[in-house]
Design a protein that fits this description.
heterodimer, A: 5-stranded antiparallel beta sheet, 12 strands, about 45% helix, B: Amino acid/polyamine transporter I, 14 helices, about 70% helix
Chain lengths: ~500, ~375
């Protein structure tokens, strides 16, 4: 038989039934030869109850997914000591065991054969008893978990030190700790044919538009994928403007940041196994906001925010403007400066654009090389890059000293807005190419294109530039600046459709 | 689907449209030192026309442009009208592209062929027009903050060089130059606003056209008045009329501590942004009205051919900087007067008569869409 003629070998189909059998041996046979065939991590712990007529029981669980001590103490030990009354069968037996024998704090009955697989893979123990066509599920999840620590990607000087972990239940509880309100609601959806990942949709019932929540749920439910290993999978499936490099869904590792977004009327999505919560709708202005802005003094926070806007301008535009000025408009540079730039560039054999592209590329290589290395090696890469390559390149007249300053400033300014850094690299390159062809006007054409792109984008029905295009004072209090809390009496207009009132009175010292 | 623009975004779209490609030119130069009087007179003369335009849109209530026109003017007259204005708007787009490409060639890129810049502008306005008026209004709302803040700072920096004696004596040459200057201003750029009539699909309420057109126009005319008068007071009345770009020349004189010098490039940048908004609006108006005149429900498939047509069109209508100057300072062809003044008045009379017949004129405001 040739390989293309081979048909898929049919697996054993001993069940014939969808429901569990009353015979323990039949059930075990099904599990061992069909559902968990060739799976050596599944443990079948066989015991007998006490008394004149002991009953055979088997506790089935996945190794290292359960708390062994817990199962021993609260399930196995009471069962070994239990004397079951005569004549108990079926549902009565299951109820008796759940109510009078097993000491675990939660147990439920299942009847379906296929349910057993989902439950055991979810880290619970299933107790099968001879003469009972039901399985008793004992909640004893206990796999290795990371403790709740401060997220390394979003560390703060001031603010809560909590971060999401990989456990969905823990993550929901972390948000619930921040919003202790009965209006805080959670909906669950399951995604992934193979992974069957649980996804939670979090929102505030009295603030968030239910249309938005329904839309989020609809988009998640429409996902057909075999595996979801991180919230990034969901993010890519449900986002608007998929061809735009700008993010239309936010992500955070901080429960306080997620809670703040929910309180403004957004929806948060948590995915089992991912420490990143997704928040939506996501507007451009959020890329310039940090959770620390709201914990520090508003003047300091506003200053930092201005720095972020200026840094974004610097990181995207400085090389392009430099190229435009030295190549097309040298008359616009003050005389002293143009003389010193000209002297520095005298021996450089390349045109400005080649210099920018070479140095930009070197910078990106150094950054990418250092980012995933252990810290001491990463620092060494930085030093080699900055001192050896930079200094040597200038000495060898491969690039001019002003170009090193421009590229260095551009790179450092990019780190001020980590959410937009990768995008900034793309637009920096676009602007440099346009500026090298048409000078300042090429750069302006590039800016027009980017602003046009941003103007055309929406996130879950909300225009991406919403708070930047409006002239309503209340809506711009948290954009370029961060005004004092007591002045932000209303929630954002585009998000909180049900209840815009954030503060009932002004309160505070500012009143 | 109706395209609905918030009033404040519509307002800044009108402002940028009017300021658009006019900023650097010698507007109203024929009025000499009485340029400010010419601006005021032109503004006062333009306001009734703006109100008339707003009135016609207001009478359409919440209906879209196509439905409203058909109801008020009838099917074939409104389609003929749309066809005529499609040509006018497309030609205006060519003029604007030509203005900006000539300007860039004159001040920055003397050896770069105009067709290169014209092509890039055409591609961008193609994109903007395809996205529709909502996106264009959002774009204008963002860019207006840059443009008007730059103009304000430039104005402040020019103040130290202003020579108020340039405005005296008032009306030394009589009233005629003031009237001539005012008529020039009416034709370019004030009454070109008529193109925007075809850009907006529908408004939020019956009062919205007034809220959008009137304050937008008045604010833009005041900005132009201030910039033109300041430039004249810096470079002098004679040179103002002689220079191709007097505002550019005036800003070039800014010198603060010998460091902040040669800031005219900033004016060039704002000019390019304003011009882009105007050319995109013209292309949108041309596509929308042409699609309506032929009975097509969607205008977007017409945008590409019309935008690509603008590239050669901008070279045909105005090929040199002298042509730009002539189109700006000399009296526009009669066709402009026809489209900017005669036709709008005729439309208004007709529409007013029809509305009274339909009993619409005094009805309560119709809300279009939600907030």
């Amino acid at each position: 038989m040739f390989f293309w003629q081979r048909t898929k070998k049919k697996g054993p189909d001993p069940r014939g039934l969808d429901r569990l059998s009353s015979s323990l041996e039949t059930n075990l046979h099904w599990l061992q030869t069909d559902l968990f065939a060739s799976d050596e991590t599944i443990v079948y712990r066989r015991i007998k109850t006490s008394g004149p007529k002991p009953r055979d029981c088997v506790l089935v669980y996945a190794d290292n997914m359960v708390k062994h001590e817990y199962l021993s103490q609260f399930v196995l030990r009471p069962l070994l000591k239990a004397e079951l009354p005569k004549g108990l069968r079926g549902e009565e037996l299951a109820r008796y065991l759940a109510e009078q024998v097993i000491e675990a704090d939660s147990s439920e009955c299942i009847t379906g054969y296929s349910q057993i697989g989902d439950k055991i893979m979810g880290g619970v123990g299933v107790l099968l008893v001879d003469g009972c066509p039901l399985g008793l599920v004992v909640d004893a999840q206990g796999w290795a978990k990371r403790t709740v620590t401060e997220p390394p990607s979003e560390s703060v000087v001031r603010g809560p030190r909590l971060g999401f972990s990989e456990d969905l239940g823990v993550n929901i509880s972390l948000v619930r700790l921040q919003i202790a309100s009965p209006n805080f609601k959670t909906r669950f959806v399951q995604v992934g044919e193979q992974t069957k990942t649980r996804v939670a949709i979090l929102y505030l019932d009295n603030v968030t538009s239910l249309d938005l929540v329904d839309e989020v749920q609809r988009r998640i439910e429409e996902i057909t994928i075999d595996a979801v290993l991180d919230s990034g999978y969901i993010q890519e499936y449900i986002r608007d403007a998929p061809y735009s490099p700008f993010p239309t869904i936010g992500h955070t590792e901080r429960p306080d940041a997620a809670a703040a977004k929910i309180l403004e009327g957004r929806v948060a999505v948590l995915v089992d196994g991912s420490p990143f919560a997704l928040t939506m709708p996501y507007l451009l202005v959020e890329a310039f906001q940090a959770n620390e802005d709201y914990y520090n003094h508003w003047m300091v926070a506003s200053f930092h925010r201005l720095i972020r806007y200026i840094s974004f301008f610097i990181t995207t535009s400085t090389p392009a403007i430099y190229i435009a000025l030295i190549s097309y408009h040298p008359q616009l540079i003050p005389t002293n400066l143009v003389v010193s730039i000209s002297a520095a560039r005298k021996n450089v054999p390349f045109p400005g654009i080649v210099e920018v592209i070479i140095m930009g590329l070197v910078f990106e290589i150094l950054r990418e090389g250092g980012v995933r290395l252990p810290r001491p090696i990463g620092q060494a890469v930085s030093i080699v890059g900055a001192i050896v390559l930079g200094e040597a390149a200038v000495s060898a007249s491969l690039v001019s000293a002003p170009m090193i300053i421009v590229v260095g400033l551009t790179g450092v300014a990019g780190f001020v807005n980590p959410w937009l850094n990768d995008i900034a690299v793309l637009f920096r390159l676009l602007f440099v190419v346009l500026a090298s062809v048409l000078g300042l006007y090429g750069y302006v054409l590039g800016v027009i294109a980017v602003v046009l792109l941003l103007s055309s984008m929406e996130s879950f029905g909300v225009p991406y530039l919403s708070t930047m295009t409006t002239l309503v004072p209340q809506d711009i209090k948290d954009t370029l600046l961060r005004v004092p809390w007591w002045q932000m009496t209303l929630r954002p207009r585009y998000l909180a459709s049900k209840d815009r009132q954030r503060l009932q009175g002004r309160g505070g010292r500012g009143s | 689907m109706k395209e609905l623009v918030p009033d404040h975004q519509g307002l800044v779209l009108v402002m940028l449209f009017v300021v658009g490609n006019t900023l650097v030119f010698a507007l109203g130069g024929v009025a000499g030192p009485d340029i400010w009087l010419a601006f005021l007179l032109a503004t006062v003369l333009a306001i009734p026309m703006i109100l008339l335009m707003a009135r016609v849109r207001s009478l359409m209530g919440g209906a879209s442009l196509a439905c409203g026109l058909e109801q008020l003017l009838g099917k074939w007259p409104s389609r003929a009208l749309a066809f005529a204005y499609a040509g006018y708007a497309w030609r205006l787009a060519c003029y604007v592209v030509s203005d900006v490409t000539n300007f860039i060639q004159a001040v920055a890129l003397p050896t770069t062929p105009q067709v290169v810049t014209a092509t890039l502008f055409a591609l961008l306005m193609l994109w903007a027009a395809k996205e529709g008026v909502e996106v264009l209004a959002r774009f204008a709302a963002i860019m207006s903050k840059v443009v008007f803040n730059v103009l304000f700072v430039t104005f402040l920096m020019l103040l130290s060089q202003v020579e108020l004696g340039e405005f005296q004596p008032v009306m030394y040459n009589g009233v005629k130059p003031v009237w001539l200057g005012a008529f020039q201003l009416l034709e370019f750029p004030f009454l070109e606003v008529v193109v925007l009539f075809w850009v907006f699909d529908c408004f939020r309420s019956k009062k919205s056209p007034y809220r959008v057109f009137l304050p937008g126009f008045v604010a833009a005319s005041l900005i132009l008045l201030v910039m033109a008068s300041t430039s004249l007071a810096v470079v002098g009345a004679e040179r103002y009329a002689q220079f191709y770009f007097p505002v550019w020349a005036a800003v070039a004189r800014i010198n603060i501590s010998t460091f902040l010098t040669r800031l005219e490039a900033i004016i060039g940048v704002t000019f390019a942004i304003g011009s882009f908004v105007k050319m995109a609006a013209c292309l949108l108006a041309a596509s929308r009205s042409l699609a309506y005149s032929f009975g097509f429900a969607d205008y977007r498939f017409l945008v590409t051919p019309l935008a690509l047509g603008v590239i050669p069109g901008s070279q045909w209508f105005i090929s040199t900087l002298l042509d730009v100057e002539l189109s700006v300072i000399k009296t526009y062809p009669t066709s402009a007067t026809f489209f900017q003044a005669v036709l709008p008045v005729l439309i208004w009379i007709w529409v007013e008569w029809r509305a009274r017949k339909l009993g619409r004129g005094k009805s309560s405001p119709t809300q279009a869409g939600g907030q």
